[in-house]
Amino acid sequence: MNRYPYIAALLGAAVLSSCSAFDKNAVQDITGPLPGGAAIRFFNFGVNAPGVNFYANTTKMTAITSATGIESTTGIVYGGVGSGGDYSAIASGHYTLAVKIASTTDNYLAIASVPFAIADGKYYSFFMSGFYDATAKTVDGFVVEDPWVQPTDFTVATVRFVNAISNASPMTLYAKNTTTTTEIAVGAAVAYKGAGAFTALPAGVYDLNTRYTGSATNVITRTAVSFNGGHVYTVTARGDITVTSTTAVNRPILDNTANR
Predict the structure, then answer these.
(1) How many CA within 13 A on the CB side of residue 260?
(2) Are the C-beta atoms of residues 178 and 210 closer than 8 Å to each other?
(3) What CATH number was assigned to the domain covering residues 156-258?
(4) Out of 11-20, 73-82, 101-110, 208-217, least confident range
(5) How far is it, in rounded angstroms, from Cα 50 to Cα 96?
(6) 54: buried, middle or exposed (CB in 10 Å: 19+, 13-18, 0-12)?
(7) DSSP state for residue 10 in the 8-state scheme
(8) Count of Cβ atoms closer than 10 Å to residue 12 Cβ
């Protein structure tokens, strides 16, 4: 199934229009033509962070509606991605990409902001990352370009690795085919806030592991991940690398989200 980048925009995320300063929860006007050229998606991978909404300047890019039709104060919670992982359309230009608390307490308080230039014709992912400081009410954030190309060979998938764990050393992602047992390095070692190159893998089911440079010990493991032919995926490490529990919410996890 193809994932079209502007679906999210049609469902209510992000045609960039001006919002008044006093109407912080204004719903975007999506009745006009879509802006051309660029698309972005948003992840809440900030450990212990509250539910949030994401903004480009004053324009809300993500929102959750309740059964009453009034926007939920839950927001995008830790481990979540806005618009179900789809991209939202955005006009090219210079922005302050901001993360703001969705709950009634501290509603609209910005806990992270990243100045960034959006270029025409490109795709991006914004990651809220690291650890949320509940006293200072701040958290990290970073943006990476998603220079993916749709595979023309439907026997392969393309995969890349992003490191959103602030207390982890640079890691390399390895994918081991559960049928052939062949293991492939998905790019090179990736440091915090970094993104590796997209790597072609034969379509199939894989066990994923990350390792530090020069080590044979697996740091994070995720088993039985399906990579479908003709699709593009980003695997992101999130959580607290020091947690050893297999059930803790803040344990290190490999998230797998399709780019297309």
Answers:
(1) 18
(2) no
(3) 2.60.40.1120
(4) 11-20
(5) 20
(6) buried
(7) H
(8) 16
> Which helix or strand (DSSP H or E) is residue 13 part of?
none
Going from N- to C-terminal start, the domains of the chain cover 7-145, 156-258
Cα 70 from chain centroid (whole Å):
25
Contact 138, 52 (CB under 8 A): no
pLDDT of 27:
40
Q: At residue 32, does pLDDT exceed 60?
A: no
Cα-trace Rg, the chain:
18
Q: Is the pLDDT of residue 82 over 90?
A: yes
If you ran DSSP here, which 8-state letter would residue 72 be given?
Answer: P
Contact present, 51 and 62 (Cβ < 8 Å): no
Stated pTM of the model: 0.85
Q: Are 213 and 172 in contact (CB under 8 A)?
A: yes
Q: Where are the beta strands (DSSP E) in the chain?
A: 38-44, 52-56, 59-60, 80-81, 88-90, 93-101, 110-118, 123-133, 138-145, 156-163, 171-177, 183-190, 194-195, 199-202, 204-212, 220-227, 232-238, 253-258
Q: How are beta strands 232-238 and 156-163 bridged, if at all?
A: parallel
